[in-house]
Amino acid sequence: MKRGTPATKRRLLSAKGISHLLDRLAAAIRRRNRRIGDLALVGIKRRGVPLAKRLAERLGGGVPVGAVDITLYRDDLRLVAETPIVRGSELGFDINGRIVILVDDVIFTGRTVRAALAELLDYGRPRAIQLAVLVDRGHRELPIAPDFTGRLVKTRRDDIVDILLSETDGRDEVTLTRR
Amino acid sequence: MNFPHRHLLGIEQLSRDEIVTVLDLARKFREVLDRPIPVVPALRGKTVINLFFEPSTRTATSFTLAASRLSCQCVNFSLAASSTRKGESLLDTCRNIEAMRVDGLVIRHAVPGAPHFLARHLRAFIVNAGDGAHEHPTQALLDAFTLRERFGDLSGLKVLIVGDIAHSRVARSNILCLTRLGARVYVCGPPTLIPPGIEQLGCEVFYRLDRILREVNVVNMLRLQTERMAAGMLPSTREYRQLYGLTRERLAGLDPATVIIHPGPVNWGVEMDYDVAELPQALIMNQVKNGVAVRMAVLYLLAGGQEEAT
């Protein structure tokens, strides 16, 4: 944080706003994928997982939900000071031949998604992988674009976008902090 | 993550929480081993060398596999071709290896403290894969992992270690590891093979197997090194089997809930009758499998995330 310039924090989405965006994401996913039975949702740990579960509820039809932890696929191990915590992946279904919707809370550089794609492909050969995110904050460093975006937010590179979800943080809210 | 060590030299240096950190992480790697492609790129670009100055198949292979499952390159330094035969000192050998841009050394050596000595002089991380009769930390960790998989929490669990306690690094590391995790450890063996003062590690000593065998939840049968016979410490393997072996007769009286483990390789018919291999409570193959996951956790903690040494 720069000295003398206090951080400003602004609310981007309320609980209601998040819920509304999830409704729209689910509708868009259904429009593009007529056969719900072929779908599987995979959340990226940690906050992609509760979002994937909420989308699955909205989609209905018992769409299976899994989780990937990309820690072991990161490309920045030697850059981070402390060894990242490995939380473990849980895919309780066969992804071969399925259409997998990868779900994350925010897309930023695209490196997390890159790692998640590499990991998913080690589990098998899905028919297709699509990407759904609640917030796209720009600043991509890789040629990766979401198929389904809840909200596009203009940010500066050093802004912080915080996604709070009741499952992990006790309440639903999205905020942007400018430094 | 709670693991502030650059090397894994022994269980002695690890707190209870640090042991739990390794074991919890190993559980995540255990899941990786069950994937269709059991390889993750976590340690891509890292290199470790297996330096085994004592023969070993299982441990060396397990470390090699653990490294390759993490996309870490692993080179085996062959004992026969080693330059120590040409009179090069251990430190020189290791310095030369390190000069070839190696991140870590996995070392097994007959001299206790050899890994500790190297850790003081090299920049690479060191994993002790057995130093004389001193420590074999990854074996103790994989045993604890296997027991946690079966029993959950180990506090209050009664574990009996049977055999040559005096010459066993497995016994030493196991006693340290299990007592730190809250288990109660008993050792049993012929008086010639029980070192005086072993109680100070926090275990209780028995000389008659039948007095304690039925009281415990876990029996860890150590391999009887046949060299001990030559040294006159034991009259015969037959007598050893009668007094300290898990014989068919002893198995008959054993509660089927009692778990049997062994660090391998087993001398069938000496410390255990072959009948044990067929028993569902014998977790020897689980130990082998879990060994890879535990070593992945150790390599990940030591090689991962640390800034490049300059």
TrEMBL record, chain A:
Pfam families: Pribosyltran (PF00156)
UniProt GO BP: regulation of DNA-templated transcription
InterPro entries found in the cross-reference section: PRTase-like, PRTase_dom, PyrR, PyrR_bifunctional
EC number from the UniProt entry: 2.4.2.9
Residue ranges constituting the Phosphoribosyltransferase domain according to the UniProt record: 16-147
Catalytic activity reported: UMP + diphosphate = 5-phospho-alpha-D-ribose 1-diphosphate + uracil
Keywords: Glycosyltransferase, Transcription, Transcription regulation, Transferase
Recorded GO MF terms: uracil phosphoribosyltransferase activity
Motif (PRPP-binding): 100-112
Function: Also displays a weak uracil phosphoribosyltransferase activity which is not physiologically significant.
Protein family: Belongs to the purine/pyrimidine phosphoribosyltransferase family. PyrR subfamily.
NCBIfam families registered for this protein in UniProt: PRK05205.1-1, PRK05205.1-5
Name listed for the protein in its UniProt record: Bifunctional protein PyrR
Organism: candidate division WOR-3 bacterium
TrEMBL record, chain B:
Binding site for L-aspartate: K86, R169, R223
Coiled coil region boundaries: none
Pathway(s): Pyrimidine metabolism; UMP biosynthesis via de novo pathway; (S)-dihydroorotate from bicarbonate: step 2/3
Annotated positions binding carbamoyl phosphate: R58, T59, R108, H136, Q139, G264, P265
EC number: 2.1.3.2
Keyword flag Transferase: yes
Span of domain Aspartate/ornithine carbamoyltransferase carbamoyl-P binding: 6-149
Limits of the Aspartate/ornithine carbamoyltransferase Asp/Orn-binding domain: 156-302
InterPro entries: Asp/Orn_carbamoyltranf_P-bd, Asp/Orn_carbamoylTrfase, Asp/Orn_carbamoylTrfase_sf, Asp_carbamoyltransf, Asp_carbamoyltransf_Asp/Orn-bd
GO annotations of cellular component type: cytosol
Enzymatic reactions: carbamoyl phosphate + L-aspartate = N-carbamoyl-L-aspartate + phosphate + H(+)
Pfam families: OTCace, OTCace_N
Entry superkingdom: Bacteria
EC supergroup of this enzyme: transferase
Recorded GO MF terms: amino acid binding; aspartate carbamoyltransferase activity
GO BP term (any one): 'de novo' pyrimidine nucleobase biosynthetic process
Keyword set includes Transferase: yes
UniProt keyword terms in alphabetical order: Pyrimidine biosynthesis, Transferase
Function, as annotated: Catalyzes the condensation of carbamoyl phosphate and aspartate to form carbamoyl aspartate and inorganic phosphate, the committed step in the de novo pyrimidine nucleotide biosynthesis pathway.
Record note on quaternary structure: Heterododecamer (2C3:3R2) of six catalytic PyrB chains organized as two trimers (C3), and six regulatory PyrI chains organized as three dimers (R2).
Family stated for the protein in its record: Belongs to the aspartate/ornithine carbamoyltransferase superfamily. ATCase family.
Name of protein: Aspartate carbamoyltransferase
